[in-house]
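On clarity, I found the account of how folds are encoded harder to follow than it need be. What matters is that the chain and its backbone geometry are given together, residue for residue. I therefore recommend that a typical entry be quoted early in the introduction. An entry of this sort, consisting of the sequence and the corresponding backbone structure tokens, reads as follows:
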Amino acid sequence: MPRPILLVVCLTPPLVIGGLFFLIAGRADLPTVWGLLAIIAAFTVVTLWRIDPGLLRERFSPGPGNRDRVTRPLTLVFLATHWVVAALDVGRFHWSPIPSQVQLVGLLGYAAALTGIHWAMRANPFYSSAVRLQADRGQRPVTNGPYRFVRHPGYTASMLGMVCGGLAFGSWVGLVPLAGVVGLFLRRTLVEDRMLRAELPGYIDYARRVPYRLVAGVF
């Protein structure tokens, strides 16, 4: 699929979600939500034009052998709940507003998290959307970029981005469903790490050199 068409395909969901958020909220004067949409658009454009074409194909149409068919659909359920609750809170009911200064910190954290995801994608040509051993693509342990510090930096950045994005939406109660997403990503990290240890040559040696999965010095 040509990259301009991919760009339209990738930008459509966040634009639709943004429109629905404003509709549910009953207002559009939410600067940090507009900021989130702008950051997503910039991330999408930069990523589509800079990452490896083979990785693009793998991201959009991964090969066989996915070991985790739970995380993606359940994540969508939790995120949809998060968006609806946050929109109702900030727009109509004002159950638990987050101070504007904290929202701004969340927005900056969200930008930093997407930058981290982009860094991981640039460093790792096997950054698939599925948990699978990519023998068909010559997968090997990746040890450069953020992988020098932790073994799954993309998941670290993804979880950070979800939490920071939730703060930027402006609803404390809207953060509650994100606990489910974090739990799913922790499970996915363990599933993928176990697979790579068992099946990817050289990964055990890499894991000895880089002992932490998500946060250096912690886990």
Summary: The mean pLDDT is 95. Residues 131 and 192 are 6 Å apart (CA to CA). The radius of gyration is 18 Å. The domain at 3-209 is CATH 1.20.120.1630 (Four Helix Bundle (Hemerythrin (Met), subunit A)).
